[in-house]
Design a protein that fits this description.
Elements: E1 12-14, H1 15-25, E2 30-33, H2 40-46, E3 53-55, H3 60-74, E4 78-82, H4 86-89, H5 92-101, E5 105-111, H6 127-130, E6 137-140, H7 147-158, E7 165-171, H8 172-176, E8 178-180, H9 200-212, E9 216-220, H10 222-226, H11 230-240, E10 244-246, E11 261-264, H12 271-279, E12 282-286, H13 292-295, E13 306-311, E14 325-328, H14 331-341, H15 349-361, H16 375-385, E15 391-394, H17 398-406, E16 415-416, H18 427-437, E17 443-448, H19 449-454, H20 458-465, E18 470-475, H21 480-489, H22 504-510, E19 514-518, H23 524-533, E20 538-543, H24 549-552, H25 575-582
Parallel strand pairs: 2-3, 2-4, 4-5, 5-7, 6-7, 9-10, 9-12, 10-11, 12-13, 13-14, 15-16, 15-17, 17-18, 18-20, 19-20
Antiparallel strand pairs: 1-8
Helix pairs in contact: 1-2, 1-7, 3-5, 3-18, 9-14, 11-14, 12-15, 16-17, 16-23
């Protein structure tokens, strides 16, 4: 008697195909990836996928930032892919950026074969070890059979609780090995099942403080965006009438044109927001880290206020500022519990009236445009002309702060910014990722010349992949923020901040894109209209002079280690001197 094996029951699949199949089952739409020797097998399998589109950036850092931009715009997990060695290490800046801002990302890296690991093989690097401080979790895949479970776990970890990046390192022989097709997916990792429901006892304590408060304020951060809590925040604010200020990461989580919005607080935030939070008797901090760009002198920050801190990550609570009511939990669920339980509107009308008076008195201001272009005016005009559902990405520098101050974002996920890590070169590739997610929305990269130069190669990606990002480059030939710090801290001795002149319109033309250069104020509005009307990618190079402190600095500004009373105002005065003259100290 002859026994024959049922070959149909034992279908073989290569690891590289199993990777793509597993990614498809996680709902991945786009991968931003650059090929190389240790990842080319994955690219071969990816080319056969009918569900995933590979977007080829021109640098691995661009891949990581594009994946971040996609994730920030959608709330889904962004995916980037690189080869071993320098390809993998080029992802690290983007991975760390995602870690600091709690952005869900899965970074896939090729690796040399397992039998070559530890031998300094060509393009070998211990990317697992190198990224341990930068990720939420990481994997080195040692068995092809483990691929489906690892990929499923990675996506669960990246986009749950306090979100963040996960690394999967895939040796080449693991990719090439054939196994019997079997996809087993479970998720039971101890320590990653974050409690989301707030403790009822803590909610009751918080509500008691809210009802007793005479000068409350809500301090809202990026955790509201991560946990889709914006609608619950708006409901809570409209029920209680409490003014709200946001961090840089929190911009858009509460409509900035709402009467109770105090806009951004912190180093370059609104004077009225910083005054309000430091004169409040209750601070309701939601999804924030009490980072130094907000608090400055941590000992003096909110010195006389009781603090309620809501965060999904228990390690953030009492880490920097000791609080009175700690609440670990999902921001949306916690705010819903507050709104459901609060029976009476807090008696805070005198406080709100005082805050609104500050809001009018200390409104943002900038020089009136003459012949030369004023960058703040450009941003205001762009806001007026751009569609209401536009997404704006920024690089790092003065342009970033002016955008945060003047654009007035109304919805979450419409402002994309490297907040915690402050990574130059972020704006263009992040806009690229957002545009892939929303091909029919206007996506604008507002950038500075220094930041734009760091990943300018992605202009070729825009051309080749037909990604219609609009780039507005505020070009003053300087590293503007570094020059400003030299002006403030080093008596105007600007060291190594001059970049030289560049014509980005001509560079755009070299890449085959539409570009335009302007340098006079009367050209701003017509040029913006032409850019927004153009169907494809566009580079608008806006030249303006870097002048003295009065005209070239981002104000207001709280110097490092100082308090809100040390704020440098737009006219160069110090806030405490101004308040002393009024008898308001």
């Amino acid at each position: 008697m002859t026994v024959t094996k049922n070959k149909e029951a034992e279908k073989l699949i290569k690891g590289q195909d199993l990777i793509i199949k597993s990614l498809e089952e996680e709902g991945v739409e786009f991968i931003f990836g650059y090929p190389g020797g240790s990842s080319m097998n994955i690219h071969q399998s990816l080319s056969a996928s009918k569900k995933i589109r590979l977007v080829l950036p021109r640098h691995e850092q661009g891949a990581a930032f594009a994946a971040s931009g996609y994730a920030r715009a959608t709330g889904k997990t962004g995916v980037c892919l690189a080869t071993s060695g320098p390809g993998a290490t080029n992802l690290i800046t983007g991975i760390m950026d995602a870690k600091m801002d709690s952005i869900p990302m899965v970074a896939l890296t090729g690796q040399v074969p397992t039998y070559s690991m530890g031998m300094d093989a060509f393009q070998e690097v211990d990317i697992f070890g190198a990224t341990l401080p930068c990720v939420k979790h990481s994997y080195l895949v040692k068995n092809t059979e483990d691929i489906p479970a690892i990929i499923h776990e990675a996506f669960q970890i990246a986009n749950s609780g306090r979100k963040g990046p996960v690394l999967i390192d895939l040796p080449k022989d693991i990719q090439q090995r054939e196994i019997v097709s079997s996809v087993k997916k479970t998720f039971s990792r101890k320590g990653f099942n974050t409690p989301l429901e707030p403790a009822k006892s803590q909610v009751r304590k918080a509500i008691k403080l809210i009802q007793e408060a005479k000068r409350p304020i809500v301090y809202a951060g990026g955790g509201l965006r991560s946990l889709e809590a914006s609608q619950e925040l708006k409901r809570f604010i409209e029920k209680t009438g409490i003014p709200v200020t946001t961090t840089l990461s929190g911009i858009g989580c509460f409509p900035e044109e709402h009467k109770l919005s105090l806009h951004m607080l912190g180093m370059h935030g609104a004077i009225y927001a910083n005054m309000a939070i430091n004169r409040a008797d209750l601070v309701l901090a939601i999804g924030v880290r009490f980072d130094d760009c907000v608090t400055r002198d941590i000992g003096a920050f909110c010195r006389d206020a009781r603090i309620i801190h809501v965060d999904v990550d228990a390690s953030e609570i009492n880490k920097i500022k000791i609080v009175h009511v700690p609440i670990q939990g999902d921001a949306a669920l916690t705010l819903k519990a507050f709104s459901d339980e609060i029976k009476e509107e807090p008696q805070i009308k005198p406080w709100v009236a005082e805050v609104m008076k500050w809001k009018k008195e200390f409104a943002f201001s900038y020089p009136v445009p003459t012949d030369a272009i004023v960058p703040q005016h450009v941003i205001i005009k762009l806001k007026e002309l751009a569609p209401n559902n536009s997404i704006v990405s920024v690089g790092i520098g003065q342009h970033q702060m002016w955008t945060a101050q003047y654009f007035r974002f109304q919805t979450p996920r419409s402002f994309i910014c490297s907040s915690g890590f402050g990574a130059m070169g972020f704006g263009l590739p992040a806009a690229m990722g957002a545009q892939m997610a929303y091909p029919h929305r206007t996506v604008i990269d507002i950038d500075g010349d220094g930041s734009f130069l760091m990943n300018i190669q992605e202009l070729q990606t825009l051309k080749t992949e037909q990604i219609p990002v609009k780039c507005v480059v505020l070009n003053n030939n300087h590293l503007g923020m570094a020059a400003q710090w030299d002006d403030c801290n080093n008596k105007g001795s600007r060291e190594h901040t001059y970049l030289g002149e560049a014509n980005f319109a001509e560079i755009a033309d070299a890449f085959g894109l539409k570009g335009e250069k302007i340098s006079r104020s009367e050209e701003v509005e017509p040029a913006l209209k032409r850019m927004l009307a153009h169907k494809g990618p566009y580079v608008l190079d806006i030249h303006y002079p870097y002048n003295d402190a009065k005209h070239g600095h981002v104000t207001p500004m709280i110097p490092k280690g100082k308090t809100y009373l040390d704020t440098i105002m737009s006219d160069g005065k110090i806030l405490k001197d101004y308040l002393a003259e009024k008898g308001d100290l």
